């Protein structure tokens, strides 16, 4: 792995469930190492099903350079759940979905059934297809932090090495952290 891997990190913009808007932005930040070199964005539906396709399209805009895809969890815009397997199969870029804490799958399943009684199974399938949730420790400016992740197209030792290169001030990878900051401002 290069000293300064080129990654694209995704997070969604701020949104409100009870607003008139049915969309929010999905933001992708391209970094070489931890230095931001570009940004892409497009709209996704709140609680929709298009985040996977939009993420693929935004990655393709930079596919000659990007080596790894990083995301803040697997859900954007509420329950617009990405399909990690499809993203990896189409882009051929390893993808790592990072989260700061363990997920209560029973609570998520219950929420999906309540909110989407007729179509919860497809959303639940993307969660199951994400595979196991792994844990690693990342050394950052603040010390040692536990990070959890799903991944496709990359082995645990490579994920560990990558996260240690792109996490500096927090346990969230720098491109994802920047996408989060920009998303809160939009």
Q: Share of helix among residues?
A: 25-40%
What percentage of amino acids are in beta strands?
Answer: 25-35%
Report the radius of gyration as a whole number of Å.
16 Å
Q: Major sheet, described briefly?
A: 7 strands, mixed
Order of helix and strand elements from N to C terminus = EEEHEEEHEHHEEHH
| Domain count | 1
* Strand order within the widest beta sheet: 3-2-1-4-7-9-8
Give the overall silhouette. globular
- Measured distance between first and last alpha carbons: 34 Å
Mean pLDDT: 93
> According to CATH, what is the topology?
archaeoglobus fulgidus dsm 4304 fold
| Helix-and-strand structural type | alpha+beta
CATH superfamily: archaeoglobus fulgidus dsm 4304 superfamily
Task: Provide a short characterization of the protein structure.
This protein has 186 residues and is of the alpha+beta class.
How would you portray this structure in words?
This protein is an alpha+beta fold. It has a single domain (6-185), classed as archaeoglobus fulgidus dsm 4304 fold (2-Layer Sandwich), CATH 3.30.2170.10. The longest helix has 12 residues, at 174-185. Helix 3 runs antiparallel to helix 4. Strand 5 (75-76) and strand 6 form a beta hairpin. It contains six helices and nine strands. The strands form two sheets. A seven-stranded mixed sheet has the order 3-2-1-4-7-9-8, with helices on both faces. The radius of gyration is 16 Å and the shape is globular.
